[in-house]
Write a structure and sequence with these properties.
This protein is of the alpha/beta class and about 525 residues long. About 35% of the residues lie in helices and about 15% in strands. The protein is elongated and about 80 Å long.
Length: about 525
């Protein structure tokens, strides 16, 4: 509460300053006039009450305008902090008096608090639709049945609160999902590992040989950058390791690195690609050769060797001489000298979905495999994802997984499965899956939707995108004009123009947000 108060105080001050002229005019307009109103005492009380209410409304509008509903990552910080403070499992508090004390809270959603940028106000308004609104098929059918979406497409819309399917067009048709595969990876990883799980990278000293082993823990967000932010820092690990070695009078070591946590081919079946590094249990900054943190980038040929080389340089900077690092395996007798751990899995899931991060997706597929008793490989991860989804009762007919990122064109899912995943993430009895919803990109604001919906339902649609050559998909949530939280999935194959297909999907999601369909 103190943190929230400190964050809001300067904005309140600015809002109050901006509202002073309006307040002054309100006070002048509400000044008592006894010549016309003989019962002055009663009227002054009424006027004061009305004036105070009006001024309060003006200040509230000012605060909302200044503060805005979104922070830099597209999350509603105030709502999330309040929910955390109340220790409610729903992830957001909408102030509903209908929720009984101690009962699970509703799933968080991108509520219709913003007017669509450049769009009509009723597109994302909160007014109730007239009884007997248009059928979903009348609104969505023509928007989906366009040449831009190719020769094969499927769509499903589900009411998250009830799980009821409201619209379906070939809902059971298996199609290539592209990056919407990450929704399955996210749900499976959270189910297998838990939202609070962390991945640890450690430095271990062999007691007999004095060999120092950098042991990869499969953390896809380990960083060697100067400013690590919230991520595990390879520099910090080196500093902590050097401190322990100095205390033991050791100033020189034989350095090696251990990547045996993961198995199978490191190179994705698509081959060398700027969208994904070789998958390794030890990697720093996703093997990127530039300063980028998301999107395509040239990658190093051996992420583990590169990370170990940087670790050696950091040790030397801390006064520890090392040999040139080589691959090895830490024994069970190796003593851990220092560790660094990733943020919780919930944060990694949000980053993966917001930025469509393939490196995180493939690492999490392997971690899910390990938790499920499968080999930590592409095939083991795919099998583990399917196993976890079956345990949740997901509609798996026709589904086929071959990786965790969706880069493999052999992946197949149905629109029915994608909406079922989103609805399950909104289940108030499964708060551990909530990062699947909070990590969805916000239209016009964050991640892969940051530059989309600038003329439509910006701030209202939240969705995971998917794009491969000839494939365009979109799956996420909207709050419609009736205030219902809807999950949707649109998949299109054999598209010829990715930009036209993308626009067609965006128009359909925008229409869904505002139609109040039945």
């Amino acid at each position: 509460m103190v943190r929230l108060a400190n964050a809001v105080r300067p904005r309140l001050a600015r809002a109050a300053t901006a509202a002073k002229p309006q307040v002054a005019r309100l006070r002048r307009g509400l000044r008592p006039r006894p010549l016309h109103l003989p019962r002055s005492r009663t009227v002054r009380t009424w006027q004061y009450t009305a004036g105070a209410a009006t001024v309060g409304l003006a200040l509230a509008v000012g605060v909302v305008t200044v503060a805005g509903p979104w922070d830099a990552d597209g999350q509603r910080t105030a709502e999330r902090d309040r929910a955390a403070a109340l220790e409610q499992p729903g992830g957001a508090d909408h102030g509903s008096s209908a929720v009984q004390a101690g009962a699970p809270r509703p799933a968080p959603s991108a509520a219709p608090v913003l007017v669509g940028l450049g769009g009509a106000s009723d597109v994302v308004g909160t007014r109730k639709a007239a009884p007997g609104g248009k059928p979903f098929s009348d609104v969505l059918g023509p928007l989906l049945d366009v040449s831009a979406l190719g020769g094969s497409h499927a769509a499903v819309v589900v009411d998250v609160s009830t799980g009821k399917r409201l619209y379906g067009a070939d809902p059971d048709e298996p199609l290539t999902p592209a990056s919407t595969t990450k929704l399955a990876t996210a749900v499976a990883a959270l189910s297998a590992l838990g939202a609070d799980h962390r991945f640890t990278t450690r430095a271990a000293l062999e007691p007999d040989t004095g060999e120092l082993v950098l042991v990869g823990g499969g953390d896809p967000t380990l960083t060697a950058r100067q400013d690590a932010g919230d991520w595990a820092s390879l520099r910090t690990l080196a500093t902590r390791t050097a401190e322990v070695l100095h205390k033991r009078g050791i100033d020189q070591v034989t350095l090696s690195y251990d990547t045996t946590l993961f198995s199978g081919p490191a190179l994705h079946p698509i081959g060398v690609n700027e969208n994904l590094a070789r998958v390794s249990a030890l990697t720093a900054d996703e093997g990127r050769t530039d300063d980028s943190t998301s999107g395509p980038a040239t990658r190093v040929t051996d992420p583990a060797a590169s990370a170990a080389g940087k670790f050696a340089a950091f040790l030397q900077g801390a006064g520890i001489k090392t040999t040139s690092p080589g691959p090895s395996k830490a024994t069970t007798r190796a003593e851990t000298l220092a560790t660094v751990s990733s943020p919780p899995l919930s944060a990694l899931i949000e980053r993966m979905l917001t930025h469509s991060d393939n490196d995180i997706a493939e690492a999490l597929a392997r971690q899910t495999a390990l938790a499920s008793g499968e080999p930590a490989s592409f095939s083991g991860g795919a099998k583990a994802i399917a196993t976890q989804l079956r345990k949740l009762g997901m509609p798996m007919s026709g589904a086929s997984f071959h990786d965790g990122s969706g880069l493999n064109r052999a992946d197949k899912v149905t629109a029915d499965l994608l909406t079922a995943l989103l609805a399950k993430a909104g289940d108030p009895h499964r708060p551990g899956l909530r990062p699947v919803l909070t990590g969805l990109p916000v239209a016009g604001f964050t991640g892969t939707l940051a530059h989309r919906y600038t003329d439509g339902a910006a701030g209202v649609v939240r969705a995971k995108t998917g794009t491969l050559t000839g494939v365009n998909t979109l799956a996420g949530t909207v709050v419609d004009s009736d205030g219902r939280l809807l999950a949707f999935a649109f998949l299109a194959s054999d598209t010829t123009n990715p930009f036209e297909a993308q626009s067609a999907l965006d128009r359909t999601a925008t229409a869904l947000a505002g139609c109040g369909c039945r």
